[in-house]
Write a structure and sequence with these properties.
One of its GO terms (cellular component) is cytoplasm. Its main location: cytoplasm. This is Ribonuclease 3. Its EC number is 3.1.26.3. The chain is mainly alpha-helical and about 240 residues long. The protein has two domains: about 150 residues, Ribonuclease III domain (Ribonuclease iii, N-terminal Endonuclease Domain, Chain A); about 70 residues, Double Stranded RNA Binding Domain (2-Layer Sandwich). It is built from ten helices and three strands; from the N terminus they run αααααααααβββα. The chain has a three-stranded antiparallel β-sheet with strand order 1-2-3. A hairpin with a 6-residue loop joins strand 1 and strand 2.
Length: about 240
């Protein structure tokens, strides 16, 4: 939706969005704010950046608490691995796309006419909506909404059905776009031999990008590669 919006059109958009979310706002202005990208903000309706900030924190807390209670025998490292995938930009963008959020987001004309609509933008809106629901109805409502949207993704991750070779994808992208092969560097090792944790960082043209934490070097590299692909907004469906 671009910056030529009349009140009737806006009301219809917000009504349709609430139907998609399966949540009805008491204060619908919160939803309007959550759907407003910084390229569209006005003096009367700020962008969703502040809501996104809070929504990210609520999302992390909800998923962390759920995993902590559901898997009492899982190590901190395993819980962290599951959480990192569930709250990733790729996962949130996927959920947002399945909900059809793109059609409700208010953006400037430049973004609306762009051939490439950033996945991160949809993910950010999803986080902003979580915060909007929190302000509208409290933490329990935000908790329930978050789990309703993401519980299936948690099951997918726990059953290892999400696995992709992100290192291979990143290498393919870098070779094709930059003529360069990414490298990985171990920056930290901790824990006893039977439960060691590795932290690695991706380097592209010797510039550090993202870190990954895992129970072995291979796992840490895969996580770092996935986060780097998200940072670079690479569409992994086309690789």
């Amino acid at each position: 939706m671009t910056q030529t919006v009349d009140n009737k059109e806006l009301e219809e958009k917000l009504r349709a969005c609430q139907k998609k979310l399966a949540y009805s706002f008491d204060n619908v202005k919160l939803l309007e704010n959550a759907l407003t990208h910084t390229s569209f903000k006005t003096a009367y309706n700020p962008s969703n950046e502040r809501l996104e900030f809070l929504g990210d924190a609520i999302l992390g807390m909800v998923i962390s608490e759920y995993l902590f209670k559901k898997f009492p025998d899982y190590s901190e490292g395993k819980l962290t691995k599951i959480k990192s995938v569930v709250v990733s930009r790729a996962t949130l963008a996927k959920i947002g796309a399945e909900m059809g959020l793109k059609q409700f987001i208010s953006v400037g004309k430049g973004l609306m006419t762009s051939r490439s609509f950033p996945k991160s933008l949809i993910a950010n809106v999803f986080e902003a909506i979580i915060a909007a629901i929190y302000f509208d109805s409290g933490l329990r409502a935000a908790y329930d909404f978050t789990l309703r949207c993401l519980k299936n993704e948690i099951d997918i991750v726990c059953n290892n059905k999400h696995d992709k070779n992100y290192k291979s994808m990143l290498q393919h992208f870098c070779q094709r776009q930059q003529g360069h092969i990414p490298r990985y560097k171990i920056i930290k090792q901790s824990g006893p031999d039977h439960d060691k944790t590795f932290e690695v960082v991706t380097l592209i043209h010797n510039v550090e990008h993202c870190t990954g934490l895992g129970n072995n070097k291979k796992e840490a590299e895969q996580i770092a590669a996935r986060k780097t692909l998200e940072l670079l907004e690479v569409n992994t469906d086309n690789i």
